[in-house]
Design a protein that fits this description.
alpha+beta, Bifunctional nuclease domain, seven-stranded mixed beta sheet, 30% helix, 35% strand
Amino acid sequence: MPVRMELSRILIRELTEMQLIELREVVPEGTDSSDIRSFPIVIGLPEATAIERRLKGIQIKRPQTHDLLASVIGNMGGELVSITINDLSDHTFFATLDVKAADGQVLHIDSRPSDAIALGVSEGVPIYVEEHVLEAASRDPEMESGSEDPADGDEE
């Protein structure tokens, strides 16, 4: 069963291409904070900047790829309802854009987590992580340190 998560921080280091975002479990108020799970994802600088821009509400003159995708989804009668990080293999995360089509069917469109989060932040949709992914990411010492294969498919 997917677990609701939130983007808890973004770390941009402009001198390197590898940036970090951290997802943290959303839990009911009053829950012991030591039980809250979190993990980092290594992403590229363009995606990190796009996420940061959306978080800060900074508008730019021309649409970027994430803006274009949001426009295409909306103009085709769809609605982004959530994003789901659904797999972790060899330190590479996989995700889907969960789009409700005009006919009501929910489509799960493959995406890199960084692109999904950049789009999801601007649309204000929930982030979910499959339990098996959260368990693997939470116990993997390389994930704890934030290190990840730079050729993980989430970099451009």
